[in-house]
Amino acid sequence: MLGLGFIGWIVIGGLAGWIASKFMGTDAQMGIPLNIVVGIVGGLLGGFLLSLIGVDVEGAGIIFSFLTALLGAVILLFVVKAVTGRR
C-alpha cells in the first residue's frame, strides 16, 4: 500500500491488535502500545502465512491488509496464550 504512511500502518496495526485482543479475551492485560505491537507483528505473521499458501498479499488493498493483520494477531495471541498457559 503505497499511499499509507508510517502513521497509517500504526493505526491499522493498533486497530487489528485491539480487535484481536478483544476476540481472544486478552484486552484487560494489554494497553495501546502492546495492541499496536501485536497488530504489526500479526500483519507480518499473517502475510507470511498467506504467502506460504500462495496468496498474493502485496497490493491487495487496505481492507485485505487489515484482515491479514487481524488474522495474524489472533494467531499470535492464541500461540502466546497456549505457551504461557494464561486463561
What this model shows, in words?
It contains 3 helices and no strands. By secondary structure, it is an all-alpha fold. It has one domain (6-79). The longest helix is centred in the last third of the chain and has 23 residues, at 62-84. The N and C termini lie far apart (36 Å). The model has no long low-confidence stretch (mean pLDDT 81). It is a multi-pass membrane protein. It is found in: Cell membrane. This is GlsB/YeaQ/YmgE family stress response membrane protein. The chain crosses the membrane at residues 6-25, 32-53, 59-80. Pfam families: Transgly_assoc (PF04226).
Give a count of the beta strands, DSSP E runs of length 2 or more. Answer: 0
> Strand fraction band?
under 5%
Spatial gap, N to C terminus:
36 Å
Q: Assembly type of the shown chains? A: single chain
Low-confidence stretches: none
**How many DSSP helices?**
3
Order of helices and strands, N to C? HHH
Protein name: GlsB/YeaQ/YmgE family stress response membrane protein
Organism: Janibacter melonis
Transmembrane segments: 6-25, 32-53, 59-80
Pfam family, one: Transgly_assoc
